[in-house]
């Protein structure tokens, strides 16, 4: 039987969240559960092309991860619809759900907890290839894995055959990026992918995410509390506060000319790296574009940095 989700009808958005609301708690008349609206009437659309990076920004509890979980099909909306290629993901057939699971991938925050310490890191790479029948032979599997690792700046000979504890946090996280790349996804939800990695290694991971967009045409939703990195890699920024979209627009519009008090508060919390600027001076003044990761060629950095 053909799989309607395998192709995207002309003019249909790749992803659409339509009036999505998620409420937790409120178990009944005799329940003491507090009702919490984690996401309130959220709307957003991602077109099939060109590939884009959308940053969803907010503090803990703002609704970012709830939105991501609903887009991944891990949480069902209390109301509204999550559409993939024009169809509600909760009405998928078995074949459609299989396609969806391959084409919509996730990179999670913790580069430690996603691994089983009893298996070598090869396991997280070979398993999805086998599950989704991406290769016709062991030789093809090996080739695909080597190409994916090289694409994110990891040398296969330094990565494969090792246990998770033998790799740095940055190597582990980039291995997970390679894993998503193996499945040839249409969209990746990256939930705080650099928050648990040393600051010195964040640039290589962000560069890998940018490469997924520019070289492989994969759209990303980048979940973060950090407006600075959102500005550096995204095409569009959505600011969430208590489940409500308070501001959205281009990185320049949101960061350099914030309209909502909550966005202004987030920007004022960005530490100043310039010793000539007084503490408390508007951080937006320092976003002059010269450090914009979107304009930097990281190929040399990725090739040389084994961590």
Q: What are the salient characteristics of this protein?
A:
307 residues; alpha/beta; Rossmann fold; four-stranded antiparallel beta sheet
Structure report:
The chain contains 11 helices and 10 strands. With 307 residues, the protein is α/β, with parallel strands linked by helices. It has one domain: Rossmann fold (3-Layer(aba) Sandwich). Strands 6-7-8-3-9-10 form a 6-stranded mixed β-sheet, sandwiched between helices. Strands 2-1-4-5 form a 4-stranded antiparallel β-sheet, covered by helices on one side. α3 packs parallel to α6, α4 crosses α6 and α6 runs parallel beside α7. The C terminus is likely disordered.
Question: Can you summarize this structure?
Answer:
Helices cover 34% and strands 20% of the residues.
Question: Residue-averaged pLDDT, rounded?
Answer: 85
Sheet-strand content, in percent, reads: 15-25%
Main sheet overview: 6 strands, mixed
Give the CATH superfamily. P-loop containing nucleotide triphosphate hydrolases
Report the count of strand segments: 10
Uncertain spans, ≥5 residues at pLDDT below 50?
288-307
Shape: globular
Helix and strand composition category: alpha/beta
* Helix and strand pattern: EEEHEEHEHHHHEHEHEEHHH
Proportion in helices: 25-40%
Q: Indicate the CATH topology.
A: Rossmann fold
Between the first and last Cα atoms, what is the distance in angstroms? 45 Å
Gyration radius, in Å: 20 Å
The CATH architecture assignment turns out to be: 3-Layer(aba) Sandwich
Strand order, sheet with most strands: 6-7-8-3-9-10
Question: What count of helical segments does DSSP give?
Answer: 11
């Amino acid at each position: 039987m053909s799989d309607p989700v395998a192709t995207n009808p002309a003019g249909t958005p790749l992803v659409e969240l339509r009036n999505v609301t998620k409420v937790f708690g409120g178990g009944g008349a005799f329940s003491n559960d507090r009702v919490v609206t984690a996401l309130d009437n959220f709307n957003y659309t991602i077109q099939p092309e060109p590939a884009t990076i959308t940053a969803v920004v907010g503090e803990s509890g703002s609704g970012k991860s709830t939105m991501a979980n609903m887009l991944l099909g891990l949480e069902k909306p209390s109301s509204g619809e999550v559409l993939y290629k024009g169809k509600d993901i909760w009405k998928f057939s078995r074949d459609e759900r299989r396609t969806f699971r391959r084409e919509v991938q996730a990179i999670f925050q913790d580069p430690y907890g996603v691994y089983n310490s009893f298996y070598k890191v090869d396991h997280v790479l070979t398993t999805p290839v086998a599950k989704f029948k991406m290769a016709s032979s062991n030789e093809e599997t090996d080739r695909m894995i080597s190409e994916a690792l090289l694409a994110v700046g990891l040398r296969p000979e330094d990565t494969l055959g090792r246990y998770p504890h033998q790799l740095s946090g940055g190597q582990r996280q980039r291995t997970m990026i390679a894993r998503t790349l193996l499945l040839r996804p249409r969209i990746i939800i990256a939930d705080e992918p650099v928050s648990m990695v040393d600051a010195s290694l964040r640039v290589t991971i962000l560069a890998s995410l940018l490469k997924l967009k520019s070289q492989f045409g994969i759209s990303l939703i980048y979940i973060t509390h950090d407006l600075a990195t959102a500005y550096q890699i995204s095409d569009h920024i959505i600011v969430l506060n208590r489940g409500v979209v308070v501001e959205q627009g281009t990185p320049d519009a949101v960061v350099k000319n914030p309209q909502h008090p909550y966005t202004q508060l987030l920007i004022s919390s960005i530490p100043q790296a310039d010793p000539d600027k007084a503490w408390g001076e508007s951080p937006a003044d320092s976003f002059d574009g010269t450090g914009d990761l979107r304009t930097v060629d990281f190929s040399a950095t990725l090739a040389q940095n084994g961590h």
